[in-house]
């Protein structure tokens, strides 16, 4: 069976869905691998490196896809590329299904079997395939590196003959994978760090990294037991807003990472809170792709407010650390295909009763099969 990897065409996407290491392992399964020329250049992987690993380098997407039974991608290909994909092909990538509702029926109409890696269930068996975790981990790290770069004062406390430079005070909002890595990185850089999350389990995780926990502890937050935060009541949001108003103004750097799966990101840092921050403060909004946790975030842009606060709202944070992100993402995809590989048939076997497949398989044989996307009966 032929597996294709194409050059990513979406603006700002520098990652690639395979590396020379994963190509070797895919070939060991019995696959042939075709890679479009230039697919890895933005992730520092040359065509020669892919060829040395055993891949066939093709001049364009159409040639790579000809006869392919599997297509690995970072993001779902655009319609003009999907039109080149042969019916029955297994497409494995991140789909952004909630942000692009037309995609799932389009995949079914084209008879493309779609696997959405971002919908991987949070179970122990699936950890090594969890693209959200691998990419969020790097995003949290990158957020602090960019914050330190933009911050015009010192990050750690520095004592000199000319005086003492105080440490930066950092607040991380959201203590999922990205938030915890942001906390850990801020601590390594020497900042005074605090973290907040609506989930009570996050309290001990934040404290275990040497940061101070700040949060609203009540009956409603006690019910937040899943890996993702759920929608909170208006009463809880008011308590949280009061706490944030008092906390945000005391910090030099705010890192926003709070997401609610399948929904617009909650606004936690209001315009009034931004106005109360001192000049030179930095807000990094990792939730910019979902609207942003800061009311003043402009997705895809870096702005400076009238009172001198810099708000960085880059889209696609993992792409900003493309070499490492590609390595981890490619391993996630390799593990997925290996886990469901039928060695006798030399093809993947996606059993729909399997918990992982139930979570990620969107379409099969021209039909929408994921319960979240099956059209309601008229």
Description:
It is a single chain. Helix 5 (103-109) links the parallel strand 5 and strand 6. The chain is built from 13 helices and 19 strands. The protein is globular, with a radius of gyration of 22 Å. The two termini are 40 Å apart. Helix 6 (131-150) runs antiparallel to helix 12 (322-339). The strands form five sheets. The protein has a seven-stranded mixed sheet, covered by helices on one side. A six-stranded parallel sheet has the order 3-2-1-4-5-6, sandwiched between helices. The chain has 378 residues and is of the alpha/beta class. The longest helix is centred in the middle third of the chain and has 20 residues, at 131-150. It folds into two domains: 2-129 and 322-365, NAD(P)-binding Rossmann-like Domain (Rossmann fold), CATH 3.40.50; 151-315, Rossmann fold (3-Layer(aba) Sandwich), CATH 3.40.50.
Assign the CATH superfamily of the largest domain.
NAD(P)-binding Rossmann-like Domain
Distance between the termini: 40 Å
* Principal-axes shape call: globular
Number of helices: 13
Unreliable runs, pLDDT <50, ≥5 residues? Answer: none
Mean pLDDT across residues: 93
Return the domain count: 2
Q: Into which percentage range does the β-strand content fall?
A: 15-25%
Fraction of residues in H or I helices? 25-40%
The overall strand count is 19
Oligomeric form of this entry?
single chain
The top-level CATH class of the largest domain is Alpha Beta
């Amino acid at each position: 069976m032929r597996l294709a990897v194409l050059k990513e065409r979406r603006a700002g996407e520098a990652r690639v869905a395979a590396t020379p290491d994963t190509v070797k392992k895919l070939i060991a399964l019995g696959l042939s691998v075709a890679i479009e020329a230039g697919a890895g250049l933005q992730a520092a992987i040359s065509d020669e490196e892919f060829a040395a690993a055993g891949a066939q380098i093709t001049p364009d997407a159409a040639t790579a896809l000809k006869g392919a039974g599997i297509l690995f991608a970072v993001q779902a290909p655009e319609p003009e590329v999907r039109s080149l994909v042969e019916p029955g092909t297994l497409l494995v990538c991140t789909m952004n299904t909630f942000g692009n509702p037309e995609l799932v029926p389009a995949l079914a109409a084209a008879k493309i079997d779609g696997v959405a890696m971002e919908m991987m269930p949070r179970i122990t068996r699936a950890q090594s395939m969890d693209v959200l975790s691998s990419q969020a981990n790097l995003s949290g790290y990158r957020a602090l590196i960019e914050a330190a770069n933009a911050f015009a004062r010192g990050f750690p406390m520095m004592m000199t003959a000319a005086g003492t430079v105080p440490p930066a005070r950092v607040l991380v909002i959201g203590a999922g994978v990205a938030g915890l890595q942001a906390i850990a990185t801020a601590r390594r850089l020497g900042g005074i760090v605090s973290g907040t999350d609506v989930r009570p389990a996050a309290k001990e995780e934040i404290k275990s990294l040497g940061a101070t926990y700040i949060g609203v502890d009540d009956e409603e937050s006690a019910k937040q037991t899943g890996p993702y935060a759920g929608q909170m009541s208006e009463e809880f949001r008011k308590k949280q807003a009061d706490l944030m108003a008092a906390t945000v103004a005391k910090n030099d750097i705010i890192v926003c990472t709070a997401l609610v799966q399948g929904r617009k990101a909650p606004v936690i840092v209001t315009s009034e809170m931004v106005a109360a921050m001192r000049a030179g403060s930095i807000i990094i909004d990792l939730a910019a792709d979902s609207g942003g946790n800061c009311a003043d975030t402009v997705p895809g842009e870096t702005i400076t407010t009238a009172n001198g606060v810099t708000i960085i709202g880059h889209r696609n944070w993992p792409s900003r650390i493309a070499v490492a992100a590609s390595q981890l993402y490619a391993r996630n995809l390799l593990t997925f295909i290996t886990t469901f590989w039928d060695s006798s048939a030399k093809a993947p076997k996606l059993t729909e009763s399997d918990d992982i497949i139930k979570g990620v398989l969107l379409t099969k044989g021209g039909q929408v099969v994921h319960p979240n996307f099956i059209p309601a009966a008229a």
